[in-house]
Structures are given as C-alpha cells and as structure tokens.
C-alpha cells in the first residue's frame, strides 16, 4: 500500500470555512456556521523558559536531561516536535542585583560559584535534536539576584516577539515558564530608575536581551496582547507556594494553564503533558475589533449535544482528536459605515494559527434607487428625482415634494405650521420642520417610529405589563394601547376571560371572592389560591398535610414509601429552633402553625402556607421533640442512697435507745449503791501485813 504523504503544517486545516462574504442590511442578522475538527499528529513547538536564580539550583540538575525524556514522551502525541530553551534572572541594575564588581562576576555568597546575572538569554533555538538540548542545558550555571520577584515578564515578552530568533513555526506553540518566585510588572522599573514603558519589540543581540536597563517590565495586558497575537499558549510551572498568584495570572491570560512544580522540578514532564492535554481539549473563538454598529453573537454546539450560548457560546471543552464541533455565528449591523465600504473581521482560535476571514458587505440603498426618475414631474415639476416612490430634491429645493425653495422660505412662518396648539416645541422635539411640514426622526430600531402631523405619536411609549409593551396583548398606537379581544386595561394587562377563576364546584372564585382580570381576589383573607379554595388556617389542615411533611422532613410516616409520588408541590425548609418558625403575622399570606405527633409519640412542629401557584411552603423544626425515657442511673443511685440513709437512721435510733437504756441502768445502780448498809466488823482470819520490831538499843533520842 502506498504510504500516506505527510502534510506540511500550513497544509493542515482544522477550521472551515477559511473565508466568506456576507451581506448585511441594517437591523437584519445574518448567520453562518463554522466547523472545527481537531487534527491528529499536529506539530508542536515547545520553548522551556527557566528561572536560573540561586533558589532553582536543584531544579537545573533535573532539567539537564529534559530534552530526550520530553522528546520520548511527546512522540506519543505528535511525530513533529521541537524543543528550545531559555533562561532569565533579573534586570542588571540596582536594587534588583548587586552592582559591586565582585558581585557582578559572582553574585552568590560563600564558596558557591555562579555565573554573572543577566535579564534573558536564548540558550537554544527550537530544534528537534533532544541531545543538543541536554548538552547546552548541561553547560548552564546558576546565577543570583537580591530581591524575591524575578524579571520573567521581560523574558516572556522577548520569547513572544522574537519569532525568528526563537524559531517559532506556524504550529501549536507552547511556552513553559518555570520558576519558584513571583514576578515584576509594569511600574516596578521605577525602583531602578527605569521609566520608559516596554515597547513590545525584539531586542536580542547574540541571543541576549540588551535593553533590560532601558525599558520597564511589560504590563500584564501588554503580555496578553503579544501572546495572543503570536498564538502562544503559556504553561506556568510554579511551586506550591506561588500557586494562588499564578492562578490569578492564568485567569487574565487566555489559553494558559498552571501546574504545580515539585521542589526540584522532577515532575516537569508529567506537568507539561497534562497542561498540553488540558489546553488542546478546549476551543475558544475570538474576533478582531468590530466596525462601529456591528454586533456578533456565538452559539456553540459541542460534544454530546451540549449547547452553549451567550459568553459561553464562544467555547467548547473536552475535545479529543478527531472530534468535530460547530459554532453558529450571527452578525448584525445597526447602521451603514460612514465610508460605505466593505469591512473585514477575523475570527481566530487562540493557540491555533488558522483564522476565518469574514468580509462584511453593507446594503445602504434600495435596489430601486438605481432606477430613479430624474427631474420627475411628480417632484414639483422636475425639482427632484423620484426614487422608490419618494422625492429626492435637487440642490436648493426642500419639502416632501420639493415644493419649497430654501431661498424663499421664511423660517418663522414655516415653523408655525410645525407647532402643535401654538406651543413652543417644533415637531414635538421628535422631528424637523421642512417647508412647513414635520419630518419625523428615525430611530436605531426600525420597528420604532414617530408619526402624526406634529410627530407627537409613536408606537413604543405605551404602558407595559410583565416588561412587555401593552402586555403582549395589544398594539401601541399614538402612545395608547389598542388591546386584543378579551383584554382590557391601560397596558392590556387585564384578561376578561373568567374561566381561570372557576373552582372545582363550578362557582366563580368558590363563592368567596371576585374575578378581576382573570385572577380571583378573595374576599375572606383566610381563603387563598387561584380559585379561593385553599384555607391553610382552617381546622384539619395540619392533619391533612401531616404525613407529607413527616415523610419529606424525616423520611418516616405512612407515606415514606410513596412520598415523591403523593407529596408534590411542597417547598420544605428546615429550621433549628422553634423561635425561627415564621409566624402568621410575618407575611400577608395566611400561615397555619401545626403541632403533630408521630408513631414514636414524638411531637414535630411546622408552619404551612399555600402560595398562589398551589405550592405548599413548609417550615419544619428539624428535630422532633420526643418524651424523655427514665434515667436508670439516678433511679438506682437514689434507691441505694435511700437504703443507706434508712440503715444509718435505724442505727442512730438503735444507738440512741441503747444510750438511754444504759443511762437509766447506771442511775438505778447509783441509787441502790447509796441505799446499801455495809457491816464494818473485823475478819477473824485477817492478819495484818505490818510487823513492828522495837530496837532494844533505841533510846528515843
């Protein structure tokens, strides 16, 4: 089989049509369809822009082998892949770097050897040689600066505008911006005495940005413009600390992505692949500046039948290779251009080189103007050309039929014919007095017109109902509504059809009100609803709605299995406290306060109000009040404590009785002891224990 010839990048078409002409008539929209189909094996150019300040030292070691590894991974997506490398540090002036001679040679401290600081350096032009990438990146050395934010915006601007030096092709262009710090932007250059705004031009000499000391940092809006003009999609590979900052920046830059870079950039390949898949799966349409009076609207028909309108009509997401999406684009012109010439607008897809050229042709004159009758007798005997049934007066003539001469007209006399009721306003300020006749103004909307002899009538200043002119049930004539049949009122808002007021019993408004403009006005405030049949505060209403409220709020009750079938048109809201339940006086709609018991003997509280569309508005206390069961522990403790107390009391009583008894016995003993009579005679057996011996020698001296 013959091998399919590989197409060049410029031969690949992903969007159709590429060019078209449309013809616009004022006020009439014209539509066309635009089809996008994502191509397979579409070429990719990827430029890796890296921060080489000292904090990125460990990251540089991992990036040195990025070329071949990324080449291998990207071949799974495309067979035509090129890679380039650039680095940046900071502007080479104070206070961003130290300008002492020693620090200019080696900005790092201690024994660390670093290269001289620089703003931006294009190390490697885009190439398909991954080994060359590894070699040149391996020769790079880290540098350093003083402040934390880096000069990355200068580098991004040069990468965007220096297409020849970078080597961009007309293919998918990816810029990977790798850093672990914030960024300087327009105005920060004043710190270094730099006040000239960035000019957005290429200033690379020998692949080094030479004007960093001369031009300020670019603004975010300036970067967005240059990245968009050059179809460059940006991937911010930043550390976790600066994710919020770059997420905000991503929201300002179309077709950009943010990925979280590990501390040493070891996950950079997965980050790039994921970001590319995210960017390439989304298509966004943008148009160039529109001519004055021209508007454009988009409707996107995306995958799986998804239809986006309004601002979202510009984009489709989750588009895979081979998927086809369609955009319906409507262009409307409200007026003709001043020069009457065709205008051109371009519709492009950010991130893709293709665009659609749309040439707008304007119809400003009717075809019948070409067949006009010069000097027609109908225009005051040849004083003008009869075009499309109206006179186009020759120079010097005015009037509907060119019957007046500008030289002969007395302005004051003619203006008097254009004043209503001799007032001061000429043509009611809605027109011009030409030859004594009011010529009414034209409005931007052709459907809105002034009319009447004095331009005092119009068809757009009538009363409105439901934001519709004459309620949509009539027409506006001279600022008054002429209503259709069965409608009345200043804005035709009142329907005379009373069928909508009939209740189920056949009575008008259930006999409890009057039918006004097709709506029941209930005479008794207790009754409400479209036919005055609902009575939320009548007896039994709580019981009627109890089961539905119970199943909707607590998933219990008799209707818990058929709740969704039987309990429709309920709008339920839970409250945490009974005090938060709406009270009948809070709103003009009658509201019932209910207290019902469930099968567990728990009480639940709710309020009920019926809206005009028969929707039941229910506020229910989220926790039912259930009777508390016996608390075992206090009961047992009480019984035990009671037994102990009774025992102690009995012991005390016994002790008291014993004391009383002992005291009585002791008193009795004492009394008997006092009354006792004892015999004091000697014991015949008793012998004294004392023996007295007299010394014969003792003389008693």
UniProtKB/TrEMBL annotation:
GO cellular component, one term: focal adhesion
Domain annotation Integrin beta subunit VWA: ranges: 1-366
Limits of the Integrin beta subunit tail domain: 542-631
Domain annotation Integrin beta subunit cytoplasmic: ranges: 655-701
Single annotated GO MF: C-X3-C chemokine binding
Gene Ontology biological process terms in this record: cell adhesion mediated by integrin; cell migration; cell-cell adhesion; integrin-mediated signaling pathway; muscle organ development
Annotated InterPro entries: EGF_extracell, EGF_integrin_1, EGF_integrin_2, Integrin_bsu, Integrin_bsu_cyt_dom, Integrin_bsu_tail, Integrin_bsu_tail_dom_sf, Integrin_bsu_VWA
Pfam families: EGF_2, EGF_integrin, I-EGF_1, Integrin_b_cyt, Integrin_B_tail, Integrin_beta
Localisation: Cell membrane; Cell projection, Invadopodium membrane; Cell projection, Lamellipodium; Cell projection, Ruffle membrane
TM region positions: 632-654
Record keywords, A-Z: Calcium, Cell adhesion, Cell junction, Cell membrane, Cell projection, Disulfide bond, EGF-like domain, Glycoprotein, Integrin, Magnesium, Membrane, Metal-binding, Myogenesis, Phosphoprotein, Receptor, Repeat, Signal, Transmembrane, Transmembrane helix
Calcium in keyword set: yes
Lineage: superkingdom: Eukaryota
SUPFAM superfamilies, per database record: EGF/Laminin, Integrin beta tail domain, Integrin domains, vWA-like
Major place of residence: membrane
Membrane topology designation: Single-pass type I membrane protein
Similarity comment text for this entry: Belongs to the integrin beta chain family.
Full protein name: Integrin beta
Gene that encodes the chain: ITGB1
